[in-house]
Amino acid sequence: MNTMLRKSVLGIAGLAFTGGIFAGPIAAPADAGPVEGKPVAVAVQGDKPDAAKLIPHGVQGAQSKITLNDEQTANAKAIIAATKKAGLPERAAVISIATSLQESKLENLGHLGDRNDHDSLGLFQQRPSSGWGTPEQITDPEYSTLAFEKGLKQADGWQDMPLTEAAQTVQVSAYPDAYAQWEQQAADIVAQHWNS
Known about the structure:
By secondary structure, this protein is an all-alpha fold. 47% of the residues lie in helices and 0% in strands. It contains 8 helices and no strands.
């Protein structure tokens, strides 16, 4: 056998043997005891937001609840997405959704004719004549949410206010206490969809 061929064959055999020793299975000793360790906390994307963050003051008064259709659910999800885009916490989404539930039942309302309160439009019943934007802007869920939350951020200490007070600082409603009745449903919606 040629010397070069013999060195190659022996080299390959050596690599195979060495690889088998170092890469092969190692038997555990028979008397090895149980493996002890501490449980590791794993964050799961589907975790729901902390209820204390969603309703820090507890709900105020009797609570109302409606069954949402697909359009209303999509509008709630749009409010949550806009809140995240604005870099605001879950509490801002709760306040925004509760406000929209009171103002429009999460329906993106156009002009209602004689039933309309002045020129109020959209999820938050914002008025073009009051400087909220054009009718097209106000009826865009993202735009109207960002406009509402811009007003919310201008309220000093909004994070620590009861929901109805925070909403009222932006909306200036004739019925300021009405927002409180939607806090639990708004918190439930945010808990369900914040991480979805």
